[in-house]
Amino acid sequence: MIKATCTQWIKFAIVLVLYLAFLIWLKSWLGLVVVPFIFDAYIAKKIPWTWWRKSKNRNVLTIMGWVDAIVFALVAVYFVNLYFFQNYVIPSSSLEKSLLTGDYLFVSKLSYGPRVPQTPLHMPLAQHTLPIFNCKSYIEHPRWDYKRVKGLGEVQLNDIVVFNFPAGDTVATGIPADDIYHQSYMVGKELAKPMDLSAMTAEQ
């Protein structure tokens, strides 16, 4: 028989309600597989999640205390970056007079709705490339369909919007220039110029 205090049941109920509200927002019920683990952590306690706290070895207590704090911080930052806020650096001069190259800013993903990761197996806190190794930070399979959850606002005039890097786009990364966005703009401007029909008629 499960013996739990009233405080444990209250904590479990609060965490469960918050987690279910999160799943309703995501419109994904795959997360229900986590509910038994939440129940075990607060009520059943069959899995020894904090086994190291019963150790009498001070070295084990110190090391595992740091590991526990670091893992919790990484998971918290990962979910905050994934669904709530993320930091970015302005890469070019296209926003000058508003933002300068190298400026840091926090982007609210709640405004327009965060995108659910299409590749669930990826390295936390990495964008699309692993530093040092210079390889993909994710595994392409399994791959989910594109999905964006409902945001708290709508796109307004003069909003600064961060776009996802286009999948499979090798043009931008293949141009060895400091400001590839400006070069792309200039090329597009040249292509958009109206053709001289009079010259074409004369040649014919």
In terms of topology, how is this protein built?
Blueprint (H helix, E strand, L loop, with lengths): L5 H21 L8 H10 L13 H26 L1 E5 L14 E5 L71 H12 L5 H7 L1
Antiparallel strand pairs: 1-2
Helix pairs in contact: 1-2
Describe this structure as you would to a colleague.
The protein is mostly helical. Among the domains are: 48 residues, no CATH class; 34 residues. The chain has a two-stranded antiparallel sheet. Helix 1 packs antiparallel against helix 2. It is elongated and about 75 Å long. 1% of the residues are buried.
Strand order of the largest sheet: 1-2
- The beta-strand count equals 2
Shape: elongated
Our measurement of the CA-to-CA distance between the termini, rounded to an integer number of angstroms, reads 94 Å
Count of helices?
5
What oligomeric state best describes the polypeptide chains here?
Answer: single chain
- Radius of gyration from CA coordinates: 25 Å
Poorly predicted spans: 196-204
**What's the mean pLDDT score?**
78
Q: Look at the helices and sheets and give the structural class.
A: mainly alpha
Helix content: 25-40%
Biggest sheet overview:
2 strands, antiparallel
- Beta content: under 5%
Q: Could you give the order of the helices and strands?
A: HHHEEHH
